[in-house]
Amino acid sequence: MHQLTLAEIARGLADKKFSSEELTKTLLARIAQFDPQLNSFITLTEDLAIEQAKAADARRANGESGALLGAPIAHKDLFCTLGVRTSCASKMLDNFKAPYDATVVAKLAEAGAVSLGKTNMDEFAMGSANESSYYGAVKNPWNLEHVPGGSSGGSAAAVAARLLPAATGTDTGGSIRQPAALTNLTGLKPTYGRVSRWGMIAYASSLDQGGPLARTAEDCAILLQGMAGFDPKDSTSIDEPVPDFSADLNTSLKGLRIGVPAEFFSEGLDPRIAELVHNSIKELEKLGAVIKTISLPNMQHAIPAYYVIAPAEASSNLSRFDGVRFGHRCEDPKDLTDLYKRSRAEGFGPEVQRRILVGAYALSAGYYDAYYLQAQKIRRLIKNDFVAAFNEVDVILGPTTPNPAWKIGAKNSDPVSAYLEDVYTITANLAGLPGLSMPAGFVDGLPVGVQLLAPYFQEGRLLNVAHQYQLNTDWHTRSPAGF
Ligand code: GLN
């Protein structure tokens, strides 16, 4: 049963082949058996899950239907969950029980999805390896000595190991697409504003976006359907109609114009990944797509701009965790300054502290124009590059990451080398565009992803291309040995 995709689960439940309660119990048993190797969950909510599964079964018995009704999922541990710990993988929020559900959590619960628990992540979503969690590193099920990617590494590892069919993630600079690539999943970052950020603990507000991680594009369409939509409680949520994301999955790719940016194949890309990306291009050509080389001339500035904007916004967002309003409070403070200093020094891990320092510096008087403002200008140039490119092509294709999953600890002494792993994903966040990563082969037994980008609100097009690719390839069906 654990091999079923969301789409297959929906059919099985509708045909009464099994109940949501049976499925939920099977998956909870798998989590108990296998998660000790992976560390993909921070909190399990077994009782709540069984309650939700029974309620979903009752709704089906009453004649209700729906692709998510009774489907087991899990939430990255930065989506607030009423009465359940929401830790952001930080000591700072180790004992924080959210007083409300995030919009994404509430919407999926309403659609009947069964939440099994909260998944591990990089602390406050800062990272590309899931090594910065207060609860310990997550392991990649394809090789337990390697990272699963981050920051949604717990969601990715759990889905890749077939502990559950799909999970939510968030993507500020690549945190859905990059772990999807490194664990052989399909992951989609929607257009900025498509999915509500209300109740999603903020890292960098102008970049953060929630989205689905699953094995197939078909399943990403199902999960995204339950997550997307205008939310008056989020001022950056966009009041655009939500299409049926599954409607265009079967559209032919004949005549589809795919742009391949020359800059995506520069120095730093593992040549074995470049070859797999070229294979995927050939596959899509066979399906009727027309390939065109394009240019994104400002791409080289994306990482420096991101690592000014994201820490700047983070330093502001994280100021609320001061031991008074929220978060860990130190023992016996001497005075208020001591309370702030020690609570924050004890509550935040080293990567979060590094980002707060960088961000506070970039925003400080006298430096704002030189850093933050300058980075925002670069952001506009990058957006303009995409607008120009999408005048010529329908989607853009390239590698998701320059390298496959690295060994746990390998980049610890050099944070910049980890930052460089985001080189292909970050531009979509800076421009607010939707992006998807899909499985495209293996290097040394480790999965490799291909990234697709589309114009604003064209998630359906990304899902269509990925689905057609998946109908003609079997990379996404491979599962890690031992699970
Ligand atoms: N790796 C990037 C960072 O560390 C992106 C993280 C994310 O998308 N949440 O900021």
From TrEMBL:
Residues 22-463 form the Amidase domain. GO terms for cellular component: glutamyl-tRNA(Gln) amidotransferase complex. GO terms for molecular function: ATP binding; glutaminyl-tRNA synthase (glutamine-hydrolyzing) activity; transferase activity. Pfam families: Amidase. It is an enzyme of class 6 (ligase). The active site is at K76, S151, S175. InterPro entries: Amidase, Amidase_CS, Amidase_dom, AS_sf, GatA. It comes from the Bacteria. The keyword ATP-binding applies. Belongs to the amidase family. GatA subfamily. PANTHER family: GLUTAMYL-TRNA(GLN) AMIDOTRANSFERASE SUBUNIT A (PTHR11895:SF151), TRANSAMIDASE (PTHR11895). Heterotrimer of A, B and C subunits. Allows the formation of correctly charged Gln-tRNA(Gln) through the transamidation of misacylated Glu-tRNA(Gln) in organisms which lack glutaminyl-tRNA synthetase. The reaction takes place in the presence of glutamine and ATP through an activated gamma-phospho-Glu-tRNA(Gln). This is Glutamyl-tRNA(Gln) amidotransferase subunit A. It comes from Pseudomonas helleri.
